[in-house]
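Cross-check.
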Amino acid sequence: MVKECKHIALVLGVLVLLGGHAAAQQVLVRTTARAVTREETRQTLHVVDLATGEVAPWRDTLPGMQAATPLVVSPDGAWTFMTTRGLWPHPAGWPATVSAISAVSLDPMAIFRAAEAGMLFAPNQRMACLFQSPGGDAVSLLVFENGADRANATADMVTLRTFTPGHGFSDGPLAAWETPGPPVQAVPLALDQQVCVLSRSPMGASLMVLDMHTHEVTADVMLSPLDGPLQGPATSLEMVLTPDGERLLVFVSAFSFEAPGGGQRSWLYALDTATFEFLAEPREFPGIPQAQAPSLWPLENGACWAATASPGEGFAHLYRLPLTPTAPRAVEQPFANVSAPLLVAPAPAGNGVAIGVRNRLELWPEGEPAGAPLRFDYELGFVEWTPYGILVGEAHRLHLVDPEDGAVLLTVPFQSGQPSQALLLFEQPAQYQARHRHSATVPESAPPPGYPHLPDALVFRGEAVGRERRVLRMQPDGGERHWRLEFNFDDMPWLRAHPRSGGPGQAEFSVMGVDPAALPALPADTIIRGVAEVVYDEPGSAEPSRHPITILVSPQPDGPRTILWLLGSEDGTAHRPQGLDGHSLQAAADLLAAPPHWFSHRYAMLPFGESLTGHDVVIVTAEAAS
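Predicted model, tokenized:
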């Protein structure tokens, strides 16, 4: 909810039945449940009507706990596919690295669960992109696979499979291509049945163009930053096709030998999709493409939004880059104190853009900074500009925001988790379809195959410094790699970690915490940050692999977090405000007062005439509200 009206909300859930055809304003919403450690534990699908806010009774849970790719709609709009890992219950006979590609029918809504018929199991796989032949109902999928779990194979592969309604996935791959390094992203080109695959190789970023008819490699291009080598599996890469299909934009990054302090830089290449020749010299930017989120958004008007981040420094930059002579002028906007990717949502038509930064939503109707941002209670999970308004995921709520004045038109709560994605169902305008179909690979949306699922950031709360501990699992299931944790002690004297190395038969975990005595003297609202790296020794390779983790210490709150309990009325028919002794909610209050929550409780009776702004949570018991 918006901060001005956050305290008490009365929500009436109205259920409607799905008919044979969905209304134009229905959206498919994926929610993600998380554990206290922020790890994903469940992916659930819902259908919401944006006209009424009603949530349909249909809901279903995908087989894996963690999302490896987002939901992607097939070109004919009849199916959506998604890759999940961490399957539960774990399928018998499969290794711990198994993942599932699930097929979801959109009319009627259903997740197909039979193996091969609607669910494809394989170790270390993830869907890359979708395409269809005109007039056909079969969906072709490119799948990224890692060879570590295939017999007598170690190479990274791209495989071609098909999904046919009524029959499911093909028994085996129709074609396979070996890539020079871990594949990162695949994008269908405007040319007939051609797909471009971006890989990370020892020499730089590799582009391969695959012909789906002949199964031949029709082009092979190597990209390298101008003054530095790519830095292993942690290097950010991204590519995107412009709406006219004539340009392929590729973002690469590396440590720059010329930048002050050897900082990380990014280079944006533009290639002609007909010849795969460079259209101009690459443009250079500070920082690197965003991890776990897109960084490029090409527009119909000939411009492209681009975002970069500086991990560990708290800075991000957003650019509007003119790609054609008629495109809108260039825009550059820096953002400070940023700990998560910028959530950028261009308007389906026109120059407008919405940007999610921490807990605020900025609306730029003409593509340039304008007006005061809209603030929410919690950090935003996703932002999506649709023809019906701007969808915003915040905590366990989905909001529909008017792009004209920033008014919240609709709020839909979910009990299954936090909204992490929303897709319009049916009757989608062409501009919206072009942005959200076919490509399944969000850059850096999954860790390199064969590595444990390490976080990109660890957040220690200011009020719990010295008491809070985080345990990092360094070894994958059955892992045989030596690992070590590296960070600059001069920059981060407050970080404590033990042990800091391990391997086969040794430690598989590291316990991390913050020493309050070593924290710098800074203003109370300052976020303290640093970067640590988990380094793995790779057999047969002279270069180790690295996984950076941003370590954040959030500001200490101004005072204790409080819960206001409104327990009854002055006539004495409900509990008096002395407390919850003997009340059925006593156990819940005790839990909230204990670590890691540390809430302070205040009790009062209705009517309550004081301001609610001094309380973080307001609870009205059912007997008091009656």
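Residues 62-175 form one domain. The chain has a mean pLDDT of 81. Passed to J.P. for a second look.
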